Amino acid sequence: MIAFLKSTKVRLALVLLALAAVTWWLAVPSNPEIVSGKTDTPAAPAAGKWDGHDGATRFAAAVAVAKPGDWAQLVREALDSGNEEIIKDMLPGLLRRWMQEDMRGFLAFINEMEVLDEDGRRWSILGPILLQVIPELGERAITSPTLSSIIHRTILNVARHDPDTALDWAQQRLAGIEQDRTITGIVPYLVVKDVEAAKRLASGIGSTPCRLAAQLAIGTHLGALDSAAALAWARSLDREGDRAYALAAVLSAMAEASPQDAGEIYRDSVSKMQATFTERVLAARRQNPSTDGEFEDMTPAEAERALRSLPDPNLQYFERAATEIGQALVRDNPAAALEWARSLSTREGGDAALASVYGAWASSDPAHAWNQLRSESNPSTRVVSDFFESWATQDPAQAANAVAELSGSSARLAAIPATVTGWADAGGTTGDLVQWAGTLPAQQEQDQARGAIAAAVAFNEPIVAWQQVQQMKDPQRQAAAFNEVFPSLADVQPLVAQKAVATLPLSQVQKDYFNSLLEPLLNP
């Protein structure tokens, strides 16, 4: 699974899925009119069933007597008929009626289309019709978030196979942030077809989050295809934040094929960025040597040290690159990977890099990785957590036994929930997890384990999860764990959840909040 996720093609696919998900999340209202994801496998239309004018006449008669449950199959058959009379003259009216009278069924059909229309043929026919019909619905089309989301989804689904047409639609029919969001979703498809066009399009996006998301798609694609061109593009961008974000995307894409080159470029780039940022901050301080605010109790030397410790905010974009480079380097040479990660300061992504190295190493050679981790003088909780989660995924028993060998309570408290997560992901039974939690020597460690177990099993086993929460002794940890358990517990056992709210040491604000959520479940 880890090797699968490291594939550049897979990473690009994940970017596309993430962008589609973000666009859907941004477009769909928190409480849309009606939403349904249920789909049935559509029946294939009979060949020639609706051919010619006679076929169109019979189709019109079928529509006239059809019930809402029949509309999905009629639309499928119309899209597959090849009959222009049906498609141009009858399908728009059927779609308009469907959206007006049965939005739930229509959205289920759209969901089905997104999954089953892999070659985009049906979308190429349906898309123009929907963009014609929805505005004709009048004021509702303007004010309905659900209809707005359908426009976005239509354009993005057409973009999968025809990004140029989708772009034309977005530019003609949308404006402002809505256009930016939609264009951002088009860029991952356009960049595969025309890199230069995608670059120009991304540079013109006004919304910063949308522009950065578009540059992520470009950097991911181009970084794997032509790293030299990708690096030159990233470094040529006008905005400082854009340059950092794009460069980080390129380095992530380079990691799989050229981890050594990516690592060297990463280290050089973040070092120069931090040095430039520090000099800029010190120069601003020299121009305005005020002792007000945070500097009022500092000597000039202390103030300078404080300023030098400030991280460049743009370095936050590089954490993913540090992680992927570390994972790639450890495959060939764990010692070299460790050396590279340790050469980076924490603000340059060193902790993320080291954690990724140990996490990947635990998957391939846990014995040597464990021996090395034990020699670390003070490993961060992130390093410990990544290592034990990865190890527990491979060998839960060995990872669980090793927790006791860790020195320092903070390291053990980090390792325990990570072990639970990895163990659960590996298919460990709830009984095994609960039994292990009971063997931990300190109450604090048992609480940590039981909280992690509760979170892991809450959805499928809410009663078991609640039982784990009940056994916890620390009130703060108990309240935090109950937050994870409450939604599923309230759904299946609202009376038990109500009693839990009454008996747990929760604040009055928390009790009021939970009780407000329980009210409609207890008194439907």
Structure description:
It contains 30 helices and no strands. The longest helix is centred in the middle third of the chain and has 29 residues, at 259-287. Helix 27 (462-470) runs antiparallel to helix 28 (475-492) and helix 29 packs antiparallel against helix 30 (508-522). By secondary structure, it is mainly α.
- Give me the secondary-structure category: mainly alpha
Q: Termini separation (Å)?
A: 44 Å
Averaging pLDDT over every residue, what do you get?
88
Overall, the morphology is: globular
Report the major sheet.
none
Low-confidence stretches: 1-42
Count of helical regions: 30
Order of helices and strands: HHHHHHHHHHHHHHHHHHHHHHHHHHHHHH
Q: Please give the share of residues in helix.
A: over 70%
Say how many strands there are.
Answer: 0
| Portion in beta strands | under 5%
What is the C-alpha radius of gyration, as a whole number of Å?
28 Å
